[in-house]
Amino acid sequence: MIRLKVISSKSGKDYNYASDGAIRELLKYLGGFLIIPVVWLLWDKENQNLYDKVTETFVVENHIEEKE
């Protein structure tokens, strides 16, 4: 199971709204046709992709404990 979530780089709160996620995913899709977003990660010290910079987000680990 992948335990990742998207948070705001400004407030640190979860990025839960569908409209915000749709904008981020649209930029991710459109950026996939360009080589710049892929190469961007190699030099970005915060490991943010170009669409994460534009939407001011981070992808982080989700530390939710699972019940057994």
Element-level helix/strand string: EHHHE
What is the helix fraction of residues, given as a range? 40-55%
Number of helices: 3
* Global morphology: globular
Strand count, sense and closure of the main sheet?
2 strands, antiparallel
Output the strand order for the largest sheet: 1-2
- Regions with little confidence, pLDDT below 50 for 5+ residues: none
| Terminal CA distance | 15 Å
Q: What is the tally of beta strands? A: 2
Radius of gyration: 13 Å
> Which percent range describes the beta-strand content?
5-15%
Structural class: alpha+beta
Q: What is the overall pLDDT average? A: 78
Written account of the structure:
This protein has 68 residues and is an alpha+beta fold. It contains three helices and two strands, in the order βαααβ. The protein has helices spanning 18-31, 36-43, 50-55; strands at 4-8, 57-61. The relative contact order is 0.26.
Brief synopsis:
Helix content is 41%, strand content 15%. It is built from three helices and two strands.
Topology (elements, then pairings):
Elements: E1 4-8, H1 18-31, H2 36-43, H3 50-55, E2 57-61
